[in-house]
Task: structure prediction
Amino acid sequence: MVISAAATVEGNNGDVRHVVPTEGQPPAGGAVPPMRTQTTEPAAEPVAAAPVAVAPVEAAWTPPSWDEVVREHADRVYRLAYRLSGNQHDAEDLTQETFIRVFRSLASYKPGTFEGWLHRITTNLFLDMARRRSRLRMEGLPEDTDRLVGDDPSPEQVYSDTHLDPDLQSALDELPPEFRAAVVLCDVEGLSYDEIGATLGVKLGTVRSRIHRGRQALRASLERRAELARKDVG
Result:
């Protein structure tokens, strides 16, 4: 019969040893068979896990109130609307419609360039208005349908308020709506080509082309007006 037994002893140096008998028959006379030992190394100290960097939690964006939006941006939106439309009545309508759109979308607005968002809404509303009127004129309405005489302040008064020369505004009014929007956003509002492209939803090459052609037409109109003014003086 093969006897398998094990014992645990402690060595002089404190190591724990498992004592295992050798295989085979025990010697006659019941003598204790020779033993072999297995040394178990002390367990290594657990390594502490490196601390994990936790990104700071950004505070949730709180949309401004209606009063704050109007108070901070109404003047700028109106100036842009006036420079695009060329008259007070349309500028007021565009401004009102812009803030209605803002009010409806403010809760779902993703934080970004708020002024750029307002530029985009105002400009797109103007272009929509211009296209609607273009279709109406194609149906036979007179050209001056949208320019009825009223009791509004004179263009000179409003131009003075918006710091835009009357001749320049009149020349802008002669441009096609797409060219006018590109020139106003670039040369009056100071937007970059990339910002204008995002506002109008067109490629950079289209932005450059519209600005270039719009400036050419604007320059020709201003030169023509200057020539007429010189003749009137003479």
